[in-house]
Write a structure and sequence with these properties.
By secondary structure, the chain is mainly alpha-helical. The chain has 6 helices and 4 strands. The strands form 2 sheets. A two-stranded antiparallel ribbon has the order 1-2. Strands 3-4 form a two-stranded antiparallel ribbon. It is flat, with a radius of gyration of 21 Å.
């Protein structure tokens, strides 16, 4: 990751900040993470604003004496509260962030910028560490919605999470098929 053949994206709000700490492959990974986190944050914010507008409209309809019947589904109420974990690895692993539910994209990035790229690459240990974090922080909660003529009951959409593992590296290591299968089996066992 210390190689400078790939660099952070040049046209983002945090380019200068990242380049000051990691003007290399690791910086490119930080750029990718920041863009992902920012997109997820923007989507969640837009969904929350949409939910608020829908709530106000439904409340107005109710208060004005009209009967409101709506079918509610995950597409219209399924906001997600993402929990981010980041494992930095070379021939060792380091849990830089674990199950972070509250930080903004800027705060998440700030937590990583003090880290530097050194050492080799061991995908197996990184995947095992990812599996351990996934299992320890597993959330069995799923969004459930039930509608009736007068109202709908939805489980707390802020607790709806689906585990997703995004694996980024410089690619200089054989792919450990067994560990990938172990992560998938573990996720299937937990639901």
């Amino acid at each position: 990751m210390a190689c400078a053949d790939h660099k952070p994206l040049s046209d983002t709000p945090v380019t200068t900040r990242i380049q000051g700490h990691a003007p290399n492959r690791l910086g490119a990974v930080y750029s990718a993470l920041y863009c992902f986190w920012s997109a997820r944050h923007a989507a969640a914010t837009a969904m929350q604003e949409s939910l608020f507008a829908r709530f106000c409209s439904t409340l107005y309809t109710f208060l004005s004496g009209r009967l409101a019947t709506t079918e509610v589904d995950q597409q219209t109420t399924g906001t997600q509260r993402d929990a981010y974990s980041v494992i930095l690895f070379n021939d060792l692993t380091k849990n830089a962030l674990v199950n972070d539910l509250t930080s903004s994209p800027d705060q998440l990035l700030g937590a990583l910028l003090g880290e530097h790229a050194i050492g080799g690459t061991d995908f197996s240990s990184a995947l095992r560490a990812g599996e351990a974090i996934m299992v320890k922080n597993w959330s069995p909660e799923r969004l459930v919605t039930k509608s009736c003529a007068f109202h709908s009951v939805t489980s707390d959409p802020l607790n709806f999470r689906t585990p997703i593992m995004i694996f980024l590296s410089d690619g200089e290591c054989p792919v450990p098929v067994k560990e990938i299968q172990d992560v998938c089996r573990s996720a299937a066992r937990h639901g």
